[in-house]
Amino acid sequence: MAVKYTVQGLLIYITIAAYVLAFVTMIAGRRKAGQALFVTGFLTATVSFIYRWYDVRHVPLQNLFEVFLFLGMACYPISWVCRRVLRIGGQWADTLIGAIVLFPAGFVFNAEPMPLPPALQSWLFAPHVAVYMLAYIFMAKAAFQAAGEFAARKPGAEPAWLPPEQATYELVVIGFPLLTLGLVLGSWWGKLAWGNYWGWDPKELWSLASWLVYLGYFHWRYMFGRKHPHINSFWAILGMIAIIITLLWVNLSRLFPGLHSYAT
Amino acid sequence: MNRFKRIVLWAALVALMLLALLSIYGAFLGAERAQAFFTSLPLAFYWFALTALLMAGIVAFRRLGRVPSLLLMHIGCILVLLGAMWGSNGGHAIARKLFGIDKIPQGQMGILEQTQENRVVFTDSNSNRELPFFVRLKDFRMEYYRPGSLLVQSRSGQNWRLRAEAGQTLSLGDELGTVTIRRVFENFRIDIKGDNPVAYDEPGGSNPALEVSSERPGAAPGKRYVFERMPGHGNPNDPLSMNYSRMVRDYVSELEVVKNGQVVAAKDIEVNHPLHYGGYHFFQHSYGEDKLGEYTVLMVVSDSGLSLVYGGYMMLVAGVFWHFWGRRARAAVQSRRTMTRDLVGQHE
Asked: How far out from the chain centre does Cα B319 lie?
């Protein structure tokens, strides 16, 4: 763990501070002030992402540092869509998710700029990663709502918001097509870069497993509807666990050497 | 829901979770062993069963027929599975026996510059087969990002990195002094003129090197050459070791396909840009150099089943977005229209 004494580092730390303050303010019931801080954090995160883009001269989605920078930036727009379009609450949790994903970018991951290796020089690079990351945020929010189903005080308890089980479903409904598109784009890109649309690489297999868990969720919910809200929610949490392993463990652990190792 | 439907749904759920668990197991095996596992005979039965189950689902659930988006998703999955099976080694063997389509599933091809080759080597068995045409390598080249970088390491394990450009200076502190890059060579050569060695850049070849000078307190200024192709080369008593490296931007093979003495196709292939000819894709895979010269290694992959897989992908993605996003968006628009109509009605 190391502090980054750079402009990039400073921007990340300001964003984390804004998100944490937004979280505390929202929990304290000062919703408008919290929202203003959340927006401030988002704007700083956007400047940070653009700064990185300028610095490395390619879409900054090459490694975990850049991917987490993107995640930190995408939290606010997704939170906005959920609140305004989907009637899903839990904005305070979004600020927390933003701060959590930016923490490793600020203190753990190496930020040394690297040119793109030949395999990553494809137009499919940016959409494949970006689509996956957006899907991951929706699924993280879904998992949070699903966890709320087990909590005594449910996050969607306010009448304006959807109840947790339904909110989970709505979020998975938005995230799943993105997850599918990410998988298919990755497969297509794999064919162009490595010769096979499916290489049985650990990352590919874990991402397939995540996709299958959500597919299982839909089939289960089709069979039983809302009869077993706890089991429905459990599926969504299981899917998120698989996603975390796909995103982090596969890249960071030596247990899974593979074609996606450059992403570390 | 009738009994048959329930059985199909439960079977689908079990099949999906079984595949998820097998995928996780496969992830621990590593890509090579996972591939062997997933293409083994017991798993071949699983793939057939999954395909049959999807088909049974379409028959059992009339709703799938009435909701085109759901139908697209399920047919998409079936096409992906059929395409993958058709493109597998087993699929190629069946195509040969039943339809006389004799194609090489996958292999590698090494071609020296300015020569042509039609033998495809199977890496697992070291046997080879011939393509009905030749592939000629006009030229192979590697392109690099500029500038490269000079890595300086002290004996105590400290590291510094410097852009490999003439005039770049690195200050290493009071004890180690400074390091300056004086010249950058693409193709380093040295001649003795009079009593002095003279380094120069000779156009055409490739021997990347840097001329680096160092100044240390209490020591005479030094000059050394750091060669990309000789990493770690240097005086063991020197307090600093240096390595020059450049990052590869691309590998390019200039290829021609020759059939009956005629060039029938040509392409400069690079990573992400393969050549497609005669039912095969040719991918830039590797490269090397031996006493006969530079050579490229191509991965040759049959395109059997690929159209089915891609067609399946398109149907799957279209179906998923249509079903989960499109139908909802339409419903939202309709409900907004109804609300507006109601409001207008109330005002009237």
From this structure: 28
Whether B321 and A121 lie within 8 Å, measured CB to CB: no
**Looking at this protein, which amino acid is placed at residue A45?**
A
CB distance from B23 to chain A under 8 Å? Answer: yes
- At A123, phi and psi to the nearest 5? -65, -15
A166: chain B residues, CB-CB within 8 Å: none
Q: Helix crossing, A202-224 with A164-194: angle to 10°?
A: 150
- Helix (H) or strand (E) holding B66, with range, is helix B62-66
**Distance between CA atoms of A256 and B122, rounded to whole angstroms?**
26
DSSP result, B281-319: EEEEEEEEEETTEEEEEEEEEE-TTHHHHHHHHHHHHHH
Are the CB atoms for A246 and A207 separated by under 8 Å? yes
CA dist A45 and A40 (Å) reads 9
Residue type at B98 in one-letter notation: L
- Does A177 sit within 8 Å of B248, measured CB to CB? no
Query: pLDDT tens for residues B9-51?
Result: 999 999 999 999 999 999 989 888 999 999 999 999 999 999 9
Predicted model pTM: 0.89
Three-state DSSP state, A191: helix
B295 touches chain A (CB under 8 A): no
Q: Which residues, listed in sequence order, are joined to residue B270 by a DSSP beta bridge? A: B252, B273
Chain A residues in contact with B313 by the CB 8 A cut-off are 184, 187-188
Report d(CA A200, CA A211) in Å as an integer: 15
Q: Count CB atoms within 10 A of the CB of residue B162.
A: 20
- What letter represents residue B221's amino acid? P
Task: Place A150 in a pLDDT band, splitting at 50, 70 and 90.
Answer: confident
Write down the pLDDT at residue A155. Answer: 56
Best mutation target, A171, A205, A234, to test chain B (most B CBs within 10 A): A205
What residues of chain A lie within 8 A of the CB of B24, using their CB?
205-206, 209
B272 and A198 in contact by Cβ < 8 A? no
CB B317 to CB A184 under 8 A? Answer: yes
Architecture of domain B104-143+249-302: Sandwich (2.60)
Closest alpha carbon within chain A to B87: A196
Measured between CA atoms, the residue of chain B closest to residue A202 is B27
Q: In this complex, is the C-beta atom of B160 within 8 Å of any C-beta atom belonging to chain A? A: no
Q: How far is CA A135 from the centre of its chain?
A: 6
ipTM confidence score: 0.90
Contacts by A90-94, CB closer than 8 A, 24 or more apart: A90/A141, A90/A144, A90/A145, A90/A148, A90/A155, A90/A156, A90/A161, A90/A167, A91/A26, A91/A34, A91/A35, A91/A38, A92/A22, A92/A23, A92/A26, A92/A27, A92/A34, A93/A141, A93/A144, A93/A155, A94/A38, A94/A141
**Nearest Cα to Cα of residue A264 among A245, A251, A247:** A251
Which of the two residues, B348 and B254, has the higher pLDDT score?
B254
